[in-house]
Amino acid sequence: MATIKDIAQLANVSNATVSRVLNYDQTLSVGDETRQRIFEAAEQLNYTKSPKKNNPQHGRIAIVEWYTAKEELEDLYYLSIRLGVETKLQELGYEVTRFFQNDPFNTLSDALGVIVIGKYSPAQIQRLKKLNPNLVFVDMNTLDYEISCIMTDFKSPIKSVLDHFIAQKITKIGMLTGQESTADQVQLGVDPRLTHFETYLTTKNLYHPEWILTGDFTPESGYQLTMQLLKEHAASLPEALFIANDAMAVGTLRALHESGIQVPEQLSLISFNDTSICQYTFPTLSSVKVYTDQMGQAAAELLIKQLNADQVIPQVITIGTTLTLRNSSK
């Protein structure tokens, strides 16, 4: 595990600034460029292997991120995937061009291929296909569009989280999740984590819809939803919360700290994604480890394979997960 000092040295900032940025301290005034350096340093230092940058030899590949650069800093899951893609492409000797949601996409047609990260509407997918037919998506199942994609597993890790709570004699379990929309304002479906959460607890007669709250996948939303839960259910709080991403969980920790609720003694928390911030919160966050760097690397390798193939057969590659237990859960 990289230390605060390691991250500070790589990002060229103070230890205190790193700590406050990683904990989404709302009182800290720091520019987005500095925040991005810190988050990227934290993710890179926690990769399983260090990036090797070779001189570009094979041409240019584009990466399209469904967030703006600013939004990406609120959800390190997608930043981590992007870094995994970039690292692998650079190792393989390709030049990388990065596009965020609010960038013009006109030059995508000049790239050998495109790795598309995030969620997109049917209209956006068709537009991307017209600009460049050599596509691989990450974190969206695009097989219906005859496009290959890299996904993470949701069903098995949700069962692992809930089985862990139940093994600790915790049966009053709530969940905080988010609702997403594409950049062109098409609302996406229900979070699959919530679907699996509801299905599994219903089979055990332990599902409590009153403890399910939906906002968005940001620290501020996690904070507000937790405050709402504490206010509306003060007399009947759950014993544990499963939180759909780490950023929301950071907000939850802040709300519980301000409200004098001890974690995990009074309320256990497990989040999802296990981005680098989980190791620097207090208490450290238990989280489902999504192998975002491997997702990014798999996307890069699959695109290169398709570019060199005589026939492209669309496929879905699903990357597994691991439950990482730290101090926020019993």
TrEMBL record:
InterPro entries: HTH_LacI, LacI/GalR-like_sensor, Lambda_DNA-bd_dom_sf, Peripla_BP_I. SMART domains: HTH_LACI. Keywords: DNA-binding, Transcription, Transcription regulation. It comes from the Bacteria. One of its GO terms (molecular function) is DNA-binding transcription factor activity. The keyword Cytoplasm does not apply. SUPFAM superfamilies: lambda repressor-like DNA-binding domains, Periplasmic binding protein-like I. Residues 2-51 form the HTH lacI-type domain. PANTHER family: HTH-TYPE TRANSCRIPTIONAL REGULATOR EBGR, LACI-RELATED TRANSCRIPTIONAL REPRESSOR. This is HTH-type transcriptional regulator GalR. It comes from Latilactobacillus fuchuensis. The lineage of its organism: Bacteria, Bacillati, Bacillota, Bacilli, Lactobacillales.
